[in-house]
Structure formats: C-alpha cells, structure tokens
Amino acid sequence: MLKIRAFIVVVMVFLLATGVAAGGCTAGRPAGTVLYTHTDQGVFLLLADHRPPSTRGWGSFGGKHELGENPAQTAARETEEETRGYFHRGVILAAIGNQQPVYDGRFAQFFVEVGHVLPEAIAEAVLPSNDFVYNERGPWAWVPYAEIQRLIEMDDSGDPLRIDARYLPAGAHTDWIWPTFLHSLLVAIEQGALPWETTTEETAAAGF
C-alpha cells in the first residue's frame, strides 16, 4: 500500500499546483465511472479487461474527453463505449446527476449503482457503431470489492496484482488489476467517497 499512498501524495501536489483542489476548472478532463451493485455477498464492481495489444489489465471505465464535454458527459460516453453500448450514456448521465467526482490527478471518477447484469449480455450486445471504441474492452466480470481490498493490501509486493481466477471468465486476456484504476480507487477510499461505505455508515449511525 505504500506505493499507492506515495502516488496519492504526488496527486495532491499536482491538484494544489493546478488549482483543482481549490475548485479549479473541471471542463475538458478525462473521466469515467465505477459501476457497482449490491448483492447478498456484498458489493461487487463491474470491471472490464483491455483487449490486446493493450496489457493494462482489468479496471473500471473511462477515458479522454471530447470537445465540449464536461466530466460527467465524458464519463457517461466512455462507459457506453466500453460496455458495447449496453449502458446507454443518457442513463449513466442521469444516474450521475449532480454527483461531485473524485479527482485522481486530472481524472474525474464517478460512482454509479446499477442492477446486476450478466457479463455475457454485455459481450453479446449489438454494437451501436462499428467504431473501434465500442470494441476496445472485454470481457467483463463482477469482482467483489473485498477482492479489490485484498489487492490494495498486497500492493507493496512489486508483482502484478492478480485477481482470483474464480472471478474471471475463461476468455480473459489478463488476470491482473490495472494499477491506475487501483490508484484512483484508493484516492476515493482516502477521501471517504465510496458510496456503499457511506451508506453503510449512515445506516449504522441511524441504528438500523
């Protein structure tokens, strides 16, 4: 975890230097979403592999902004593209609403709760376009947040952080978590911005 924490220090220095931490301009920034769902076994995150020749590994969704987009619009479009159009950008944008993103460097990260969907349904979705951007990710898998926590604790090993094989489909190109995604998630953890943990804490405080 020391490597991730060192990364966060660098990020915060960058934020202060660019004015983001003080409410600087947010237009034109790369952005994305973490899609999650609640189950009887806990919170699961919908992750996707990167198709070859990329060797990034598994992570959430997001990418560069396009002209005229704000971060939420970028996040919604990228999520649509990287789920083969299964999650329409309009639906994601509506779910984001007025949510304030978590910033990791210049990346704006939103959290969106979705219903459980079979990863095969995403893989079999009819592409809305032949554009490569709709076919750059896959396959998809639901990975327990508890597994992500385990990988965060292992970050000091220096080796690729491999996801337990039981959570990944047979057609996966890689079995490791994308370090950039892990770093972004830890920023959210450090800021207390994970919505499922906030909900749990509020429920406990209310005595339920």
List low-pLDDT spans: 6-25, 200-208
Number of domains: 1
Shape-level CATH architecture: Alpha-Beta Complex
The N- to C-terminal Cα distance equals 33 Å
The gross shape turns out to be globular
Describe the structure.
The protein has 208 residues and is α+β, with helices and mostly antiparallel strands. The chain has one domain (2-21, 28-198): Nucleoside Triphosphate Pyrophosphohydrolase. The chain has helices at residues 2-18, 71-82, 89-96, 119-123, 145-153, 179-190, 195-205; strands at residues 31-39, 42-50, 61-63, 102-104, 107-113, 137-144. Strands 1, 2, 3, 4, 5 and 6 form a 6-stranded mixed beta sheet that branches. A hairpin with a 2-residue loop joins strand 1 (31-39) and strand 2. Helix 1 (2-18) packs across helix 6 (179-190) and helix 2 crosses helix 3. The chain starts with a helix and ends with a helix.
Short description:
Helices cover 36% and strands 19% of the residues.
Annotation keywords:
single chain, 208 residues, alpha+beta, Nucleoside Triphosphate Pyrophosphohydrolase, 6-stranded mixed β-sheet, 7 helices, globular, disordered C terminus
Would you spell out the secondary-structure blueprint of this structure?
Layout: H1 2-18, E1 31-39, E2 42-50, E3 61-63, H2 71-82, H3 89-96, E4 102-104, E5 107-113, H4 119-123, E6 137-144, H5 145-153, H6 179-190, H7 195-205
Parallel strand pairs: 1-5
Antiparallel strand pairs: 1-2, 1-3, 2-6, 4-5
